[in-house]
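Async update (no meeting this week)

Hi team, since we skipped the sync, here's where things stand on the single-chain job. The sequence we agreed to prioritize is pasted below, unchanged from the tracker. I ran it this morning and attached the output directly underneath so nobody has to dig for it. Comments welcome in thread, and please keep replies under the output.
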Amino acid sequence: MANSKSALKRIQIAERNRLQNKFYKSAVRTLMKKCLIAAQDYSAEQTPEAKTKVDQALAAAYSKIDKAVKRGVLHKNNGARKKARLAKAVKKVTLAEAS
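Output:
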């Protein structure tokens, strides 16, 4: 247990930050998964509605990743890698449609 008021406060702040970081990381994982599932659905049935769903999911994932990087939850290279993997998966699906 903390011996001083400042140490006690640091423990409380660390716990608050841990929960905020956990929220952002979980949200990023969820949105990435939704984007990949939307891309799979689009590859199975290529309709305009499915295409817009993929685009919306990609935009939402990009937004959440950028916010997590801005707040220091993710390192900027980690965020860039996640965005690149999503873009690669979406591009693979949309190029298969053009062929």
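Quick observations from my side:
The mean pLDDT is 93.
Residues 28-98 form one domain.
Reply here if anything looks off.
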